[in-house]
Amino acid sequence: MATEMQLFTLASLLRRGKALDRLSSAVSLLGLAIGLAPLLGAPAQPLSALFCALLVLPGLAEKYWALRVALDAEFFQRLADDAEHLALRTLDLDQALTRLGLRPANLTARSWDERSRGALRLLRLQALSLLAQLLLAVSMVLGLPWLSITG
After folding, report:
1. The model's pTM
2. Torsion angle of alpha carbons 123, 118, 113, 85, nearest 10°?
3. Which of 15, 18, 43, 88 has the greatest number of beta carbons closer than 10 A?
4. Where are the domains positioned within the chain?
5. What is the mean pLDDT of residues 85-113?
6. Could you tell me if 10 and 119 are in contact, meaning their C-beta atoms sit under 8 angstroms apart?
7. Of 95, 29, 92, whose CA–CA distance to 59 is shortest?
């Protein structure tokens, strides 16, 4: 059974996903701005547009994981605030998720250790999506001048 401090710590850790999401949003906006620059009169470069489109794709994946992480952060915080009634709150949470169609009705109950590992997995997926986005951005910044010289 999870303790109040474990739930609080996990909620706090999951809230760090907001910072990852903000950075991803900035990189996505930069990619969109560069990709849409020809609409404002900048010379169109197909390779630049391709890199920008590729930059936005992991940004969209990061947004999906960020939403899931933020939802879990709120759940874990709510449960940490009322940890003495954890079993009852767990049942309430599972029933609410099932009624909203966010959890299959035939899914068996998971332990809090499994739930914690699942939430941390979502945070890692969010971070990996951001990492992919940042690697693409860096390769774009470093590679485009060389490609324009040779092309």
Report:
1. 0.87
2. 90
3. 15
4. 4-150
5. 87
6. yes
7. 29
- Separation of alpha carbons 33 and 6, rounded Å: 42
| Residue-wise pLDDT tens digits, 8-62 | 999 999 999 999 999 999 999 988 888 887 888 878 777 777 888 888 999 999 9
Angle between helices 46-81 and 86-99 (to 10 degrees): 140
HEC profile of the chain: CCCHHHHHHHHHHHHCHHHHHHHHHHHHHHHHHHHHHHHHCCCCCHHHHHHHHHHHHHHHHHHHHHHHHHHHHHHHHHHHHCHHHHHHHHHHHHHHHHHCCCCCCCCCCCCHHHHHHHHHHHHHHHHHHHHHHHHHHHHHHHHHHHHHHHC
CA atoms lying within 13 Å on the CB side of residue 16: 12
Check: CB of residue 129 under 8 Å from CB of residue 62.
yes
Contact between residue 68 and residue 14 where contact means Cβ atoms under 8 Å apart? no
